[in-house]
Amino acid sequence: MRLLNQIKGNPIFRTRIRKIYGNYFYWSWAKWIGKKKILSPYIDPLDLVVKEAFPSSVQNYIFGLEDFSEMGFLMHFLRKDDFFVDIGANIGAYSLLAAGVSEAFVLSFEPDDARRDFLKEQVMVNGLHPLIYIDSRVVGTKEETLIFSEHSVSKNIYVEAGVPRIAVSIDSLELEKTPNMVKIDAKGYGLEVVQGMRQLLEHEDMKAVICSFSEDIEPEIRDLTREIIRSEGFKICSYDPVSRVLEESAELDKELMLFVRDLDFAQQRLSLAKSFSWFNKKI
To answer: Which of 9, 115, 132, 197 would disulfide-bridge 170, Cβ 3.0–4.6 Å?
Structure first.
């Protein structure tokens, strides 16, 4: 039922429904015979390691692109030698696409040990070590040491005893190049991340932000996070990778939001970008 609802929720998925269901049933069969993982072709030229313990890898395998619009925007917008920062990289799907398809440099932050090891495996499989640097630090408002419960990056991560992690703000980093785009998936701590990158948001070379908002996040926290980004000239947008049309959006409560500054510049880039292949469909 969930698979059907996801297909209904995105018209583009219905154009490749046989392939999506084929991937779903193959994955179900692989689990049934006891396979721990599979290696599958992903967006050309990438391969994707898929493991049941990492649901995002399964979603990206089944649907080709878990976040079709946002991932499509990333691949169409970024260019070779651009700089992409992936905060809360998880299995690294965005990082892989930025480096492997767009040939951008990537700084991936993933504090969870298991997810970070899986991200390293994805990078190794695809030979992307020269383009992707993986950082184990937590991204927040300032440099400090936090205590996390083991293998947890959920909203309730602060405990008295656990695994210490070094936290850092984006603005405190001495980066050699200004990021052109940032993705934030901080499991409820997006506000802290944004508060720690105010200087970056002001920079003219910083053009786009993809921000994930947890379902349980308080509305006032979501609103404040959104308004900080918008205050620096970013507009909430929607993007159709098939038509390559970027438009301002009035939706303020989506779980995944795209913010873009200088829409004319972005639209020109998107229009001229090389195509990527999704389930043998050129987009």
So the answer is: 197
How many angstroms separate the CA atoms of 203 and 80, rounded?
20
Residue 157 predicted with pLDDT over 70: no
Dump pLDDT digits (tens) for 165-177.
778 999 999 998 9
- C-alpha distances (whole Å) from 69 to each of 10, 131, 215 are 10, 24, 19
pTM for this structure?
0.92
Pick the CATH number of 67-275 from 3.40.50.150, 1.20.58.340, 3.40.50.300, 3.30.420.270: 3.40.50.150
Q: Domain coordinates of the chain in residue numbers?
A: 1-65, 67-275
Query: What is the tens place of the pLDDT at every residue in 248-277?
Result: 998 888 889 999 999 999 999 999 999 999
Contacts of 113 (CB under 8 A, 6+ apart): 151, 163
Beta-carbon contacts of 52 under 8 Å, excluding residues fewer than 6 positions away, are 31, 36, 58
Whether residue 225 contacts residue 213, with contact meaning beta carbons closer than 8 Å, is answered with: yes
- The region that residue 233 occupies, defined by phi over 0 for left and psi between -120 and 50 for alpha, beta otherwise, is left
CB 258 within 8 A of CB 237: yes
